[in-house]
Write a structure and sequence with these properties.
Helices cover about 30% and strands about 15% of the residues. It contains 17 helices and 14 strands. It has helices spanning about 40, 45-50, 60-70, 75, 80-85, 90-95, 100-110, 120-125, 135-140, 210-220, 240-250, 265, 275-280, 300-310, 330-340, 365-375, 430-434; strands spanning about 5, 55, 170-175, 175-180, 225-230, 255-260, 285-290, 315-320, 345-350, 385-390, 395-400, 405-410, 415, 425. The strands form three sheets. A nine-stranded mixed β-sheet has the order 3-4-5-6-7-8-9-10-11. The longest helix is centred in the C-terminal third of the chain and has 13 residues, at about 330-340. The radius of gyration is 23 Å and the shape is globular. The N and C termini lie far apart (about 75 Å).
Length: about 425
């Protein structure tokens, strides 16, 4: 059977797969809502458990597989390592599935040791091959603007390298550190803050000696209670290697909780296997910071991946970058944050795009970000409203920005402006507050 939405959750240790006959079940509701559970499944808990134990393949993904990877069966497609091995990585691979413009072709030919191209087949299936303005295509396919450095831009605008007491560990805030455990990503976003670092190692790079230096530093600094594991993307490592890191961190008494920063559930949802989530359960409290950018990324596949993580007890938050031509209008952002809540992901941060070298074509004005936040606050649930932040160039850290809601003071009253622009008084006597 080759139709429907269900695929194998097999995670074979080699490229030799056991071919299974899989049941067919459409996971769309009667109205076509993505990620919804059909009534028939809701009525049968046992069937629902079986459904959730398998990964999802939508008709769109299936059609893409048949057209561009006819040699791959459904089990191959749902093997995350197959997805990594078959990423689109060069002009030939991209031109096979996308009608590239002359400017895109020129940029790809010019890359050299610049940030490489890497797009998983699954994520490539979401791109409109004929639309140069497609938001996912805009985030993934190089253009000549990448090679133009404008004033204020830098390769390391956040000064991460100067805040590394040991290689791969950024200690900027008093009680938390950023642990860069790999420079490999499943896909390479063209606006990447760490474009200077990522794409420089193989898929399974694992530097035990460097990790041990970082672990020793964390152990020797008891004020560190929070560790953000990032890269690159930590979920591109195998389960055993990732578990080695998590176990080592969890063995440090003063590390209270661990966060993992990842875009894998969005670009490689096949990676979120039951084996992975079973392993992650052992290292709570564990939080995930996901990188959603556009409503088109919220598919049945990503919804299923996020469901597995949430069911494993992992709180999920999205850190979205405001990018011109991708998500820089209120309506698109509202569809994104509403879609995130439906798949149990809390919109957490909306980042002003960092001024990395060659990022001018992605960056919007600060005013645009404030406009989007104003278009969300009060017009939808507070859970759907992320905090708009600028990560200050030069290592100043995150600075939250918002509309100026405090108008001023009139005697013992503070004057406040609400989401509609109306002014209200709040009693706040100076004599009581000092």
């Amino acid at each position: 059977m080759d139709e429907g939405l269900l695929g194998s959750d097999a995670e074979p240790p080699s490229t030799h797969h056991q071919h299974l006959s899989l049941p067919v079940l459409d996971l769309r509701s009667a109205n076509g809502e993505l990620g919804a559970t059909p009534v028939a499944v809701r009525r049968d808990p046992a069937r629902l458990a079986r459904t959730r134990s398998r990964l999802v393949i939508t008709p769109r993904s299936n059609d893409f597989r048949r057209r561009f990877f006819p040699e791959a069966n459904r089990i191959d497609w749902n093997d995350w390592r197959w997805q990594l091995r078959h990423r689109l990585r060069d002009l030939r691979g991209l031109a096979r599935v996308i009608r590239l413009s002359a400017e895109e072709e020129a940029a790809i030919r010019r890359l050299g040791d610049h940030l490489p191209v890497g797009i998983t087949p699954y994520y490539a299936s979401l791109i409109d091959p004929g639309d140069p303005g497609d938001p996912i295509r805009r985030m993934m396919v190089p253009v000549p603007d990448e090679f133009v450095q404008t004033p204020g831009e830098a390769d390391d605008p956040l000064a991460e390298d100067s805040h590394m007491p040991v290689p791969g560990l950024v200690h900027r805030y008093p009680d938390r550190v950023l642990f860069l455990v790999t420079s490999f990503c499943a896909t390479y976003c063209r606006y990447c803050t760490r474009a200077r670092l990522v794409g420089q190692t193989g898929e399974y790079h694992f530097n035990t000696q460097q990790y041990q230096q970082a672990l020793d530093y964390i152990s020797e600094h008891p004020q560190i209670r929070d560790v953000l594991v990032s890269g690159g993307d930590p979920l591109t490592m195998t389960d055993d290697r990732l578990e080695w890191l998590l176990a080592a961190l969890r063995a440090i008494p003063h590390v209270e909780f661990i966060r993992i920063g990842t875009k894998v559930p969005i670009v490689l949802p096949q990676r979120i296997t039951t084996d992975l989530t079973g392993m992650l359960r052992r290292y709570h409290p564990l939080w995930f910071s996901l990188h959603f950018m556009h409503p088109a990324e919220i598919t049945p596949e990503t919804a299923h991946a996020c469901e597995r993580l949430a069911d494993a007890g992992i709180p999920l938050g999205s850190q979205t970058v405001l990018a011109r031509g991708v998500n820089d209008d209120v309506e698109t952002m509202k569809r994104l944050v509403h879609g995130l809540l439906r798949i149990r992901v809390r919109p957490y941060y909306l980042y002003q795009c960092d001024p990395i070298s060659g990022s001018r074509h992605f960056r919007t004005s600060i005013e645009k970000g404030l406009e989007i936040i104003a278009g969300l606050r009060g017009y939808t649930t507070g859970y759907a409203c992320p905090t708009f932040v600028v990560d200050a160039p030069g290592g100043g850290g995150k600075i939250a920005l918002g509309a100026q809601n405090v108008v001023g003071r009139d005697g013992d009253d503070v004057l406040l402006r609400n989401w509609e622009g109306k002014t209200f008084r709040y009693p706040d006597p100076v004599s009581r507050t000092g």
